[in-house]
Amino acid sequence: MQDQNTMIADGLLSNMYSIDAMMRAGMTPEAASSALAPQMEHKTVNLGKDQVQNFFYTYIMILALYLAILLYGQMITTNVATEKSSRAMELLITSAKPVSMMFGKVIASCLAGLIQLIAIFGSAFLFFQMNESYWNGNPMISSLFGMPGWLLGYMMIFFVLGFLIYAFLYGAVGSTVSRLEDVNTAVMPLTMMFVVAFLVTMMALGNGTVDSMLMKVCSYVPFTSPMAMFTRLAMSTVPFYEVALSIGILVLSAIAVGMVSAKIYRVGVLLYGTKPKFGAILKAMRKAG
């Protein structure tokens, strides 16, 4: 403590001697003091992503995808199981191709989810524009409706592709259920897998570790990349080739999962009684071609 006080005292004496020397050289006391304590001007330049602002966009997108997949995925499973339990599926399967029926249900649900989200967020944006002067002093609300166009485009891409993959899987699982009471039990493994992906992304978002090795791996796994890659895009700098690779894998995976789900759908809707095992479904798929 004495050494610190001594250093402060020496600094003050040095400043006094410097001011005296400047005054003897003809400078005024104000000019001498200003020369020893100049006013520094600075400007903040953000070299990366604004994580504070983009956090709200990322959180809302992930939460919207989470709710949409759980709600509409469960709806697809329930609808398929209802058609199967009422024996209406036996008539539908003879007049339409399984691929057309599966893709029709999933695309219709996807459009319903998109229209609902557009209605909610679109009306919110419209009312914000109408009352912008009232919210102008709130930086969080103002930044929330200032989402960059490129980020909105990526949000739509990952939302649609992620929704399609899980919707196809929910439809396939629903076709293997004979009773509505078994729907929740049948979709539990799929739901748990999606919840784990959601929790991993949210933990990385909350901890600021969006560029960890786990998140990088999840960015290329089709079941986690819709949330993981979008989080990395919004919160960090990701090379374009990584984004293109992730989207390419998602597109191919959505097509592959859709085709496999259609085959499961074709076999599963004609299986009644006890819940079929995974091996039995694969064997029936091979026999069906």
Largest sheet: none
Shape: elongated
Order of helices and strands: HHHHHHHHHHHHH
- Residue share in helix: over 70%
Oligomer: single chain
State the end-to-end distance: 85 Å
Q: Radius of gyration in whole Å, from Cα?
A: 30 Å
The tally of beta strands, per DSSP, is 0
| Structural class designation | mainly alpha
Average pLDDT confidence is: 74
Give an account of the 3D structure:
The chain is mainly α. It contains 13 helices and no strands. The longest helix has 35 residues. About 3% of the residues have low confidence.
Question: What order do the helices and strands come in, and which of them pair?
Answer:
Elements: H1 2-24, H2 29-36, H3 51-85, H4 88-95, H5 98-130, H6 132-135, H7 139-144, H8 149-175, H9 183-207, H10 213-218, H11 225-235, H12 240-268, H13 278-288
Helix pairs in contact: 1-2, 3-5, 3-8, 3-9, 3-11, 5-8, 5-12, 8-9, 8-11, 8-12, 9-11, 12-13
